[in-house]
Amino acid sequence: MPFGLVSAPFTFSKFMAELLKGCEDFCVPYLDDVAIFSNSLDEHVKHLDVILRKIGNAKLKIKPSKCSLGRKTVKYLGHVVGNGIRSPVEAKIQAIVNFPAPKTRTEIRRLIGMIGYYSRYIKDYAKIVEPLTNALRGKNKREQITWTPECQKAFDTIKGKLVERPVLHAPDYSKPFIIQVDSSNTGTGVVLCQRDEKGEEHPILYLSRKFIKAELNYCTT
C-alpha cells in the first residue's frame, strides 16, 4: 500500500484486523506492528506458526531485520512489555525529561501529548498536570504562554514519577479486581488493582480526569 494516502492507515488497520481475526487471545496488531504473546515457548511456536501462515497466505512480506522472536520482553508502541508487566520505554522517558520548558502553545500541547501517552502509569495524573492544561485556557490567541512556577512544579513532578520507572501489571481474569476511587473538588481518580499470591496489590492502570464546569457544582461525596 502506498504511503501518503489519507485512508491508508484505516484501510490497512482494518485489513490486518480481518486477517488476524480469531487470534485475539494471543496476537495484537497495530498497522504493520504485530505482537504475539504466549505462556510458554512451545505455545509461542504454535502461535507463531498460525500468524506466519496467515501472513504468508495473504501474500504479505516480513522483513527479518524488523522482527524479534522468542523474547521475554519486547518494545511495543512505546512500552516494554513482557513477563506480565509493562513499563515506559527508557528513550521516551528521556525525551520527556530533556524537554525544555515550553514557551508557546504549540510546545506545551506537544509536551502534554508526550506525557499524556503515559498517563495510565501515573496516579492522579489529571490533578498533577492541571497547571499545564490551565496555561492553554483563555481567549488569548497569541502563541506565547506564561510558564509559571506552578507549571514547572507540575512538569518536575511528572518527570520524577516517570524516572522512577513505573510498572503496570497485566490483568488476570481468573482473580477478583480491586477498584479504588478518590475524588476532590476539582477531579476524580481511579486505580484498578489485583492481589498476587502473596496478597500484595499491584496496579493495572490509573485513570483520572478534571471535572467540567457543571460538575464542579456537585458534591464530592
Automatic annotation (TrEMBL):
The lineage of its organism: Eukaryota, Metazoa, Ecdysozoa, Arthropoda, Chelicerata. It comes from Araneus ventricosus. One of its GO terms (biological process) is DNA biosynthetic process. It comes from the Eukaryota. InterPro entries: DNA/RNA_pol_sf (IPR043502), Rev_trsase/Diguanyl_cyclase (IPR043128), RT_dom (IPR000477), RT_RNaseH_2 (IPR041577), Viral_Replic_Matur_Polypro (IPR051320). Pfam families: RT_RNaseH_2, RVT_1. SUPFAM superfamilies: DNA/RNA polymerases. Residues 1-81 form the Reverse transcriptase domain. PANTHER family: PEPTIDASE A2 DOMAIN-CONTAINING PROTEIN-RELATED (PTHR33064:SF29), POL PROTEIN (PTHR33064). Gene3D superfamilies: 3.10.20.370, 3.30.70.270. This is Retrovirus-related Pol polyprotein from transposon 297.
